[in-house]
UniProtKB/TrEMBL annotation:
Residue runs in coiled coils: none
A Pfam entry, by short name: FBA_1
Protein name (Swiss-Prot/TrEMBL): F-box associated domain type 1
Every F-box domain range: 12-58
Phylogenetic classification of the source organism: Eukaryota, Viridiplantae, Streptophyta, Embryophyta, Tracheophyta
CDD domains: F-box_AtFBW1-like
UniProt xrefs under NCBIfam families: F_box_assoc_1
Highest taxon, organism lineage: Eukaryota
Amino acid sequence: MMSDLPRDRFDPKMMSDLPRDMAEEVLSRLPVTSLREVRLTCKKWNRLTKSQSFLKKHIAKKKKQIEVVMMLESRVSLMSVNLLYPCVERIGNLDADQIDISKIFHCEGLFLCMTNSGLVIWNPYLGQKSWIQHRNSYHRWDMYALGYEKKKTSKYSKVLRFVNNHDPDVNHRICEFEIYSNSSWKVLDDLNLDWAILFNHRGLSLKGNTYWYAQEKIDLDGPPVIRDLPGFLLSFDFTTERFGPRLPLPFHAFFGDTVTLSSVREDQLAVLFQKRGVSGYTVKIWISTKIEPNAVSWGTSLFLAVDMNPLIGFQFDRYAGSFFVDEEKNVAVVLDKDSGKSRNIAYIIGKNGYLKQVDLGESRNRFCYPLVCSYVPSSLQIELGNNLI
C-alpha cells in the first residue's frame, strides 16, 4: 500500500546551540522535502544545509534506502520504496509552492517543469527555481530536454526545445529546434532530421546529455511514415549542441513495441523492451556498460527477463512503462495503470515469475501516466542567467 509518512518534528530552540558537526548529523537525517523549512529557521542552518559536507552526509544516509521521485496525477512527490515488504510511501511533496506541473524532465538533481505559467528549472534540494523567458509562441507538439554544457570544472544548464512532427491542422511538417541558455533562445540549424520520436516518449538525461528511443522517418514533406526497420538510440550533446549518430540497441524493436529508458547510478543507461503482439508479453531489461553521445556498449547478458502473460496478461503501454531497477535485489519497478486504466500501479518484477503490485491511487485521467525517476540531491547551481528565485 501507499501511505504518507509522518512529518519530522524537531525543536529549533533546542538545536540552535549545537556544535556544527552535531547539527549536521541531526539535520542530515531529514528528508529533502523538510529542508526548506529548516533553511527558513535561521541563517546558520541555511548556510549549513547548503554546504558540500552536509550534502555528502545527506546523500550517504539516503543510500541506505530507495528514494525516487514520482509524478502521479500532476503531483510531484519524493517517495520511499520498500522492496522487502513491498510498499511505496510518500515522504513529502516536492512542489511545495503548489505549482501546477504537467510534465517533468530530470537531470542530476535538477528538474525542468512544464506549468500553466511556463517553463521553470528547479533544484528541490537548494530550493532554487529559475523561470525561463517566454517565447512568442509555442507548439502543441513541443518536446523538451534538460542537460548541461561541460566547461572544465563547471556545468551550465541548458534546455532543448524541438518539434519535428506533421501537424494535421496545417497539413505540413513543423520543424523547429532551439536551445535556451544565457537567458535567451537560440535557433539550431543544419541538423540531420531523418528520425522520429513519439511525442509522449520522454528522453533520459544522463551525464549532461539526453537520449531517446527513435525510429527512422521517411517522406519528410508529408505525414511521418515509419519504416519497418529496427529502432535505435538517439542522443543530444548539450556541449556541442548537436545530435549524435544512431546508437544500437541490444534488441530489434519496431513500431508498437514498448521501449522505455531509465538510469542506473546516474552513469549507466537501462532499457526496457516488451514486444507487441507476442503471447508471452516478456519484459526484457538490459543495462549498458558504456554510454556516451557517440557510443554505447551493452553487457553480454540480460539484467532481467520476465514473462508477464501469467502475471498480468497485458503489455505495458508504449507511452508508459516508466521504471527503475535495483541491481542488488535483481528486480525492476515498472509504473503503469491497471488493465482497466482506473488505478496507477507499481509492478515489482523479478526472476522466476516474481510479481508484487502496489496500488498508487486512482487514475482520474486515463491519458496521464505515472512517472518515476531516480533522485540524488544536488548542489548544482542553476546557471541560466536571470529570473533566479
